[in-house]
Amino acid sequence: MAGVEVGHATIISDLPRHAAPPTRVRTGVTVLFPRGRKDARPVYAGFFSLNGNGEFTGTHWIEESGFLNGPVGLTNTLSVGTVHSALVEWWLERRGSGPDADWTLPAVAETWDGYLNDIAGRHVRGEHVRSAIDAAAGGPVTEGSVGGGTGMVAYEFKAGIGTSSRRLGERDGGYTVGVLVQANHGRREQLRIAGVPVGREITEGAFKSREAGSVVVLVATDAPLLPGQLKRLARRGALGIARGGSTSGNGSGDLMLAFSTGNPAAGVGSEVVQLVDLPNHRLDPLFGACVEATEEAVVNALVAARTMEGVDGHRVVGLPHDLLRSALEHYRRLVVDPT
Length: 339
Description:
By secondary structure, the chain is α+β, with helices and mostly antiparallel strands. Helix content is 24%, strand content 24%.
């Protein structure tokens, strides 16, 4: 997505200085700027909770106002406060003047990485958030065990951050839909890729007895959508997650936010502005793009991540690429070039 910038800070350590006895740290933070670090203009946004066993700060105001003001942070469950505070500090340092100069409400979401990470040690610090901010850039996003996704697990395979995008044809406006997920959800037996029951074909390393994970889905588009339409788009992220096999269990926090970089004058200043509005009957291609990109973003998180060992001797295997290819070939979902 043109204009969107993403940065990671990854924290991997086997001997934190303050730890006694030594422990293992597998965590981090990811920061996304809808218009880039240097553009503070708000964006229209819509939020959807498929299952609310999780935290996403700032969403009450997004629901109320229809605006996302500033960046989105992704981290682990016990580091939300740290990331929130660091984003406020960064914003105050660069604030302008006017009646709202001292007001900001960051959006920070979490998933639980305590199976691999010493989560109680709360190892994410303000300097890590600053590192993620400084690293934010456009273009391809590093995926897998990075940033907020460092210690995350999906379908009992190592997972983390995944991205994907779709560009509509000119007939449908040529708009782009980009998706970033922090994937930490699902049980092995549920996993399906391209319709293939991969989780039943690859059983090595399964360890869960129940669903207790979460997933955060961030959807970006340059289509000029209004908040109600963006809420509808955010809901389609749930269909993308479902395509992968997840049923959004009781212990899962499945939270989705969609925003539009269209209508750049909205929310700026006090004058009346004219908006561009895409009619509802033209949303279907965007819905389809969101579903496909969300499904693929989760797969990309799985494919990019590698086997990781963490606290208490816990070990989570990476999705074996050779076995995945074999399963897809067996179900005739993968075309092999004979050359």
